[in-house]
Amino acid sequence: MEIQTDFLVLGSGIAGLSFAIKAAALGTVAIVTKKEKFESSTNYAQGGIAAVQDEEDSFASHIQDTLACGADLCREEVVRFVVEEGPARIEELVRWGVQFTRREEGGVRRYDLGREGGHSRRRVLHAKDLTGREIERALTEYVSGKKSVHIYENFIAIDLIMRRFLAGGGDSAPDRCLGAYVLDLQNDRIHAFRAKYVIIATGGCGKVYLVTTNPDIATGDGIAMAYRAGARIANMEFIQFHPTCLYHPDAKSFLISEAVRGEGAVLRLKNGETFMEKYHPMKSLAPRDVVAKAIDAELKKSGDDCVLLDITHRDRDFIRRRFPNIYEKCLLFGIDMAADPIPVVPAAHYLCGGVQVNHHGETSIDRLFAFGEVSCTGLHGANRLASNSLLEAVVFAHRAFVRLQSELPQARDEDIPIPPWDPRGATESDESIVVSHNWDEIRRCMWHYVGIVRSNKRLERAHRRIELISREIDDYYRNFVVTRDLLELRNIATVAAIIIRCARMRQESRGLHYNIDFPDRDDIHWRRDTVIVKP
Ligand code: FAD
Ligand code: SIN
Asked: Which residues approach ligand 1 with their CB closer than 6 A?
């Protein structure tokens, strides 16, 4: 079946929803989302959203912190407009119903601003330690009041439909994105969604790694789809590892927010000694790349399996009030964080690179936009400042909307026919083990060879393995009926290969990319993006 819409939005996190709310005023919007609408990285965000609010704070200071964290690879003009447009976007979120935590100060109710690594001031708005859940709640409720928006839950986008791939599309007319093929997971049917504009808002790719803070949806689908369609992909070597993921055999991907360190928690070795003073003047509140690397080095030195995060000097009432979710979750695993330090390890957390876009979220492909974690806007450079990603998503969603407001009236409908999905004689798989085995192997390979500390040899090894696995997956993909697991496996393999290509290309160490064979920064040759386009 062909479904027609003005805007096809892939993803229902903060990026997709905040755009859809605005685009509803311009035309029809179809949001396609591969699980329930709230399931996204956004839903798990803890620390909050960074924006200048306090009179003692300034745009200059937020800009400076972002640039310092980005290790001279941020685009300064992007940093400037994201920071300066932040307060207006926060007001909008509040208008849409997001309730950030406030506190009473001299008879005035002000936002309770948190602090995180790399920030020189308190500027993180939060909803206790459940900021993402509150944002998803408010935005999904708000968007449900928009008649022109339809949400397709449990629909997974397979691939973008490009004009040049269609019969009659190879003429001299410029290539463009016409929509996407999407699998309805409840009925196992594949639909063609035809749209004037397609927005990729599919989030990150933490699941490419064995240990991650990300939810299961984060399989890099948008990056893989954009790559296959021919879009420019940039800076994929910059994978941010969060220093403090709960270390417990039964805890899957549970983050201990950096805001806990913002409220005074310190990192210790298992023997109780602190160590961050050896690595950075900001100690436990140093930027994430520094802290994750320091923990990695200390674990290798001591042979321990985790380090400890200690906030036991703060009183229990404060901890319960400020971090109710983390407190309860730790108790569930038998850890009383008010009395005992929390065992933590680094975990893959955030993708700083992605689909390269301009100042309005436009990709290198006509009619294809990308924003949120899937995109590479130039804001983060070689390392993202904490709590800047929720901010980036709302700023770019707004900028894309402004661009489309003026563009949509002139947008010509393509009358070229889109054929139904062609299964090419695919049969049901009788060997699902191939999927689970390769899934596991990719994630282990990336964790061990393309992790916090890299080397030429490890990258070379990873390259060979992923290439082999990718060939096997391609064969499998051609012969068997597509399923969610198969689509995600194919995408993590593609994204893993792209990360490795970018990491091998960058012959220096900068921000989140540390290669022991090129331990220094090389500003002469490498103060630039690594960009990849499908050959
Ligand atoms: P997401 O919120 O991940 O949404 C992606 C959407 O795309 C989902 O709905 C998903 O189902 C859908 N999707 C994916 N693939 C497909 C497909 N093929 N077809 C259809 N739908 C698809 N950042 C901050 O700024 N502050 C924080 O405090 C913070 N805390 C974090 C805590 C955790 C545990 C995690 C994991 C991340 C945190 N981040 C934080 C990062 C931030 O949450 C994300 O970068 C941001 O929410 C991404 O938003 P998004 O809309 O781009 O993607
Ligand atoms: C956290 O709460 O530590 C996560 C913040 C972020 O990733 O920006």
From this structure: 10-16, 32-35, 39-42, 44-49, 131-132, 156-157, 201-204, 213-214, 217, 221, 255, 350, 372-374, 387-390, 393
**CA distances in angstroms from 495 to 42, 149, 227, 414, 490, listed in the order given:** 21, 30, 9, 31, 9
Give the pair of three-digit tokens for residue 312. Answer: 């036991």
CA-wise closest residue to 176 among 462, 413, 485:
413
Residue with tokens 């998503």: 393
Predicted local distance difference test score (pLDDT) of residue 358: 98
Domains of the chain, earliest start first: 2-237+352-410 (3.50.50.60), 242-347 (3.90.700.10), 432-529 (1.20.58.100)
Write out 299-361 in H/E/C secondary structure. HHHHCCCCEEEECCCCCHHHHHHHCHHHHHHHHHCCCCCCCCCEEEEEEEEEECCEEECCCCC
- The side-by-side arrangement of strands in the sheet containing 342-351 is 239-246, 342-351, 307-310, 266-268
Q: What is the pLDDT of residues 207-237, one digit of tens each?
A: 999 999 999 999 999 999 999 999 999 999 9
pLDDT at position 434 is 83
Taking the CA atoms of residue 30, residue 193, residue 203 and residue 438 in that order, the dihedral angle to the nearest 10 degrees is 140
If DSSP codes are grouped into helix, strand and coil, which group holds residue 482? coil
CA atoms within 13 A on the CB side of 325: 21
Question: What does pLDDT average to over the chain?
Answer: 95
